[in-house]
TrEMBL record:
Pfam families reported in the protein's UniProt record: FGGY_C (PF02782), FGGY_N (PF00370)
Residues in Carbohydrate kinase FGGY C-terminal domain copies: 251-441
Gene3D superfamilies named among the record's database cross-references: 3.30.420.40
GO BP terms in the entry: glycerol metabolic process; rhamnose catabolic process
Top-level taxon of the source organism: Archaea
Transmembrane stretches, start-end: none
GO MF assignments: ATP binding; glycerol kinase activity; rhamnulokinase activity
Coiled coil segments of this chain: none
Organism listed in the record: Halarchaeum grantii
Domain Carbohydrate kinase FGGY N-terminal: 4-237
Protein name (record): Carbohydrate kinase
Amino acid sequence: MRHVAVDIGANGGTVYAGGRDGDAFAVEEVARFDNRPVERDGRHVWDVEGLLADVRAGVRAARETGPVDTVGIDTWGLDFGLLRDGDLLRAPYAYRDPAVSSTRDAILECVEPRMLFESTGINHWNTPNTLWQYHYLAREERDLLERADRLLMMPQLLTYLLGGAPVVEETVASTTQMFDPVSRAWTGGLLETLGLPTDLLPPVEPAGTRVGTYDPVEPWADPPALVLPASHDTAAAVAGLPLTDESRAFLNTGTWFLGGVELETPDRSQRAFAGGISNELGVDGTVRFLRNVTGFFLLEECRVAWRERGEPVDYETLLDAAREAEAFGPLVDPDADAFDITGSMPAQLRSYCEATGQPVPDDRGELVRCVVESLVAKTAVTLEDVFETAEVDPDAVHVGGGGVENELFCRMLADALDRRVEAGPVEATAIGNLLTQAMAADTVDSLDSGRRLVADSVAVTTYEPTADGAWADALEQMRRLEGDAQRTV
């Protein structure tokens, strides 16, 4: 069978076709499109109509290259649409819109952070999330919630608008901070305590569920089935990595970095809570024990600023300039509140360095070097905290997503972690999406067997650590920056 995976991130989407091909797992890119929050009436929202048009064009492109048996969509988490009588009431807010997190303190006044973590497995330090946006709407736009009769997370909203049932898939539900990862049900008591309606929340289905038939609009004699893959992009990415029983440490790289280890059961201990670590559900009953780090968002926003000035923004040019810049310069905490979507990122980076008493990057090479080294240092301290809490000591970390193609980042990460980095596949998210569709079609019998197919089918680049402790000072500096931010809060 041939499946189509629609993988939509906060900066763009890609459509892939593939599936099991004998003893291998095949995947090919068939379409690509841009995606970015748009400004409407002073707010950052998602262009759902544009996304639907791009998805349909991608499915048509896949059909032109061969049969299509199933279609599955994965996206980022956090955001959702509100429906009434099947119609979308308003463009969904984007999670980077500053207003949607503005009532977080009111949540923490009603519910102790430890109780939030115990109820949902999600740490209140992970920002932003669905609960905050839902609470914001209940406080500031209550009339909108009162008009709605269904809430759908972004991957299921798009699936529904293409002909699927109005449900939610459990990997993305588990990221909302409104879902119990043990009972696998919405946390009704928590929501009622916060005065949030529960009747809008849809039924929750596992990855691999068939939810309808794709509506092609144009004539199609036998349109494909719509399947819920692992629809949270990190869940799909981790499913698509060739993890083994001996090595279950992962890092998915994109706009966000999500790094941790795969566990069999959630860890809601005090130690995990204090470490800001969360539990999200994966495929086949697995749990992703992880922390979020702001990822290539910083670099992408720099590219936006430079593109507007007519300067070259291709990665090869930028990374070559970074290699020429002096090593171990200023560092920024990528998660600092100083960085957002509303201003020039190069200016924000320089202001942060000046405010923290560090040398201010001058040219683009120094800025890119600052961003890459900061991402490496932040990722390294984050992963080490997760490993220590989970009481694991992996000899390797499997990296998927866009960072796989960033040789400078991967080499630095191996040195900073003093562990082997296995980089690949870059299409981990799409492969995980396709893999769960293949499991639904019974052409792959389990996650483990699917990962073995992936390991035999994709190229992985190995980076061995060579720095001999050269990153120690940078990691200590990053911990100081994190501590300064927590004291400020």
